[in-house]
Amino acid sequence: MLQVYLKECLYFTANRLGRVITKMAEDEFASSGMSPTSAFLLMAVYEHDGISQKELGQILHLQPSTVTRLIEKLAAKGLLYNRVEGRLSLIYATDKGKALEASINECWINLRSRYAAILGEESDALSLQLDEVSDRLEKIE
């Protein structure tokens, strides 16, 4: 009976999926020398150079303290910097950070290819469905 409860429990199955996909992502992004979350933060900065910390948190669905910690780590590595304008802290990629863009994109493509090889055509649909479900659950909190 426990196996049925676990398989039907969104909390349990989502955490299990999170652990599995995190391991895959960490393996794929290891060649970039960054965690997947740090790499995705840099990807957001590439797309929106001069983005605010608040916007980064919204895009990546991360708490402000987590965004601050990631920015501090990446700044310490010389990959990005922040410039304060009034009450806003704007984030920019350094030349060293920009030099990693191709490597990070390759890691992301490799990750998607890796799970698509296992899940087949349903991988993109599953990602979109999980994103929609997450949005709906966030709205009720």
TrEMBL record:
The organism encoding this protein is Paenibacillus elgii
The entry lists its GO molecular-function terms as: DNA binding; DNA-binding transcription factor activity
Output the InterPro entries linked to this UniProt entry: HTH_MarR-typ, WH-like_DNA-bd_sf, WH_DNA-bd_sf
| Keyword check for DNA-binding | yes
| Pfam families found in the cross-reference section | MarR_2
Write the protein's name.
MarR family transcriptional regulator
- Source organism, top-level taxon: Bacteria
Residue intervals of the HTH marR-type domain: 7-141
Q: What keywords tag this UniProt record? A: DNA-binding, Transcription, Transcription regulation
The family database entries (SMART domains) matched by this protein are listed as: HTH_MARR (SM00347)
